[in-house]
Amino acid sequence: MKKVMFLMAVAGMFAFAACNNTPAEETVIDTPAVEEMVEETPVDSMAAEAVEAVAEEAVEAVAE
């Protein structure tokens, strides 16, 4: 009799665990996407050339 009651209890646990098994509804948020504002700053031409030169040297070193 103890085995039967134990099996009924286990079956009951599975029965209650199966109840309300539907996933929750997802809420849709209708907010516009926020775009990042990037402010361009003038770049010194000498500094830009120096960066390009260093980048070219690095590419040449990797290519060798």
Written description of the protein model:
By secondary structure, the chain is mainly alpha-helical. 56% of the residues lie in helices and 0% in strands. The chain contains two helices and no strands. The protein has helices spanning 2-18, 45-63. The longest helix is centred in the last third of the chain and has 19 residues, at 45-63. The radius of gyration is 34 Å and the shape is elongated. The model has no long low-confidence stretch (mean pLDDT 77).
What portion of the residues fall into strands of 2 or more residues? Answer: under 5%
Count of DSSP H/I helices: 2
Q: Structural class of the helices, strands and pairings?
A: mainly alpha
Radius of gyration: 34 Å
- Quaternary organization: single chain
Largest sheet data: none
Percent helix among the residues? 55-70%
Summarize the helix and strand pattern as letters. HH
Label the overall shape.
elongated
Gap from first CA to last CA: 83 Å
Describe the secondary structure blueprint for this structure.
Elements: H1 2-18, H2 45-63
Name its key features.
64 residues, mainly alpha, 2 helices, 56% helix
What would a concise description of this structure say?
The protein has helices spanning 2-18, 45-63. It has 64 residues and is mainly alpha-helical.
